[in-house]
Design a protein that fits this description.
mainly alpha; 6 helices
């Protein structure tokens, strides 16, 4: 999807820009004890790097050393107090959303939008679930009604024929003797 959005209609593969997908994780997602793990594609048979311009980077926020630029950035991303942040850009933006009335109202509005989307999604799921249950119940009821009508029609034909005793008609059709007698009476 990233590549498809980066190319125009007639652009060739060679026109793709380099792309980086960066995952910031709480722990060491790779399990090698590194704060930063860069993943590059490799041709397995030759062991050579496949230089397609796509890169994946995992950054473990918990392993980052605050003595490095990356470590200070990870600190700022975890930090909720803007006064304790290292980078001015983040400090100013977080302070705006946490301390200024306009920022707080903006963030509250965004939170409400997100919550409404979550509620709408959950309501849609529940409606779909209820609809499916209703359809299943309706189908089962329809099948049961159709089966009952089929049994009655078979029994009705046997009663008309007059060759089979009523207890046997009840046995073959799955109806009760009382139901078969009612069918016989309705045919008279």
């Amino acid at each position: 999807m990233i590549d498809s959005r980066a190319l125009g209609k007639r652009d060739g593969y060679e026109s793709l820009p380099e792309s980086y997908v960066i995952f910031i994780t709480r722990g060491d997602a790779i399990g090698e004890g590194n704060a930063l793990s860069t993943i590059e594609r490799t041709v397995l048979e030759s062991g050579k790097r496949f230089r397609d311009g796509s890169h994946i980077v995992y950054v473990s926020s918990s392993l980052a050393d605050e003595g490095t630029d990356l470590g200070r950035l990870m600190h700022d991303l975890r930090c909720s107090d803007p006064d304790k942040m290292h980078y001015n850009e983040l400090r100013e933006r977080v302070a705006y959303y946490k301390k200024e009335m306009e920022g707080i109202e903006d963030m509250s509005g965004k939170f409400e939008e997100i919550m409404q989307r979550v509620v709408d999604r959950e309501v849609k799921k529940e409606v779909q679930k209820a609809r499916t249950e209703i359809l299943m119940e309706g189908r089962a009821e329809g099948e049961a009604n159709g089966l009952q009508r089929g049994r009655q029609e078979i029994a009705r034909s046997m009663v008309r024929d007059g060759l089979i005793p009523l207890p046997k008609i009840a046995e073959y059709s799955g109806l009760t003797i009382s139901e078969v007698e009612n069918l016989r009476n309705s045919l008279r």
